[in-house]
Amino acid sequence: VIEVRMCSEPAPGRPVNEDACVAVDGLVAVLDGVTEAPGVDTGCRHGSAWYTRRLAARLVREYLKHPGGALTGLLAAAIDAVRADHGGGCDLDRPATPAAAVAVLRAAAGRADYLVLCDATVVLDTGGEVVAVTDERLAATIDVLRREPVPPGLDREALWRRHAIAKWPHVNTAGGYWIAAATPQAAEHAVTGTVTTGHPAGLRRAALLTDGATRAVEVFGLTDWPGLLTMLQGPGPGHLIRQVRRAEYRAGRDRDPAAGKPHDDATAAFCAFSVVAGNGEGTT
Ligand SMILES: [Zn+2]
To answer: Which of the residues 3, 24, 188, 263 could staple to 272 if both were Cys, CB 3.0 to 4.6 A apart?
Structure first.
């Protein structure tokens, strides 16, 4: 038995949500589309929110076709299908082509498989031990780029554009970072794993989060990973995102304009698993 709760919300003042979340029987995914930097030609007439929703829909479709297929293969097929969805009027070879971080959890008999590509996070509670799984390669790339000197006098948009362009040589390449975009092979580089379910030491609770939601722990320190799971299980994903918004507003008064987005789209999905095994060995 798996119970799912989810909430996804755009950053305040943003017209569209570039995050997406989706759940069908046995599969939960959250996606975080990269916001287009101002003045950068992505080559796509559809945009980031379209891409993220389309990729979510294609991922579900591939899962329903091949429920037991490797998650990397399902994601690769979904990325490939979205290439065709662009319809020929878009230049998919541009380095700023729409892209999204992805986290997926699939539950099957006695096990759960997870996948993380780029800076989304999966939090797993197995028998009371809580771990957060993410893909550190984008953060590592950004750390390197932040060490490069920045010319003085750039406004916020110019800084943003400069930062976006600096990432281009590192995207979907060995030694850089991998993200769902127009390259199906990127899926093969995702962080993946499997945990058992249906017994007391197996997976009890899981969360899938975009970085707009993990900032509750990693940026604002509102709680820790076990506390985050408890917040999602009790008050719920909407409550977590409201707490993040409050922290963002508090931090906004004295923040450095170069320190990243004041607000971000935020998505949290919570999954609870039964610890009662079908083979009679489980306990409640
Ligand atoms: Zn397009």
So the answer is: 3
Give the separation between CA 88 and CA 70, rounded to whole angstroms: 29
**Structure tokens given for 227:** 């506390």
How do beta strands 266-273 and 203-209 pair? antiparallel
- Checking if the pLDDT of 284 tops 70, the result is no
Of 7, 3, 8, 6, residue with least CA distance to 25: 3
Exposed (0-12), middle (13-18) or buried (19+): which is 88, by Cβ within 10 Å? exposed
Ligand 1 center–CA 73 separation, angstroms: 22
- Round to whole Å and give the CA distance between 208 and 121: 6
Q: Per mean pLDDT, which range of 132-136, 269-273, 280-284 is the poorest?
A: 280-284
HSE, side-chain direction, 13 A CA sphere, residue 63:
23
C-alpha of residue 72 to centroid of ligand 1, in Å: 23
81 CA distance to ligand 1 middle (Å): 12
> Which residues lie near ion ligand 1 (Cβ < 5 Å)?
44, 46, 86, 90
| Partner residues linked to 4 by β-bridges | 271
For the full predicted model, state whether its pTM sits above 0.70: yes
Rounded distance from Cα 87 to ligand 1 centre (Å): 7
Tokens of 149: 């000197």
Taking Cα atoms as reference points, which of 240, 203, 185, 186 lies closest to residue 9? 240
* Alpha carbons within 13 A on the beta-carbon side of 158: 6
> pLDDT value at position 255?
61
Instruction: Give me the half-sphere count of Cα atoms (radius 13 Å) on the Cβ side of residue 206.
Output: 32
Backbone angles phi, psi at 160, to 5 degrees: -60, -50
Beta bridge partners of 92: none
pLDDT tens digit sequence for 92-131 = 999 999 999 999 999 999 999 999 999 999 999 998 899 9
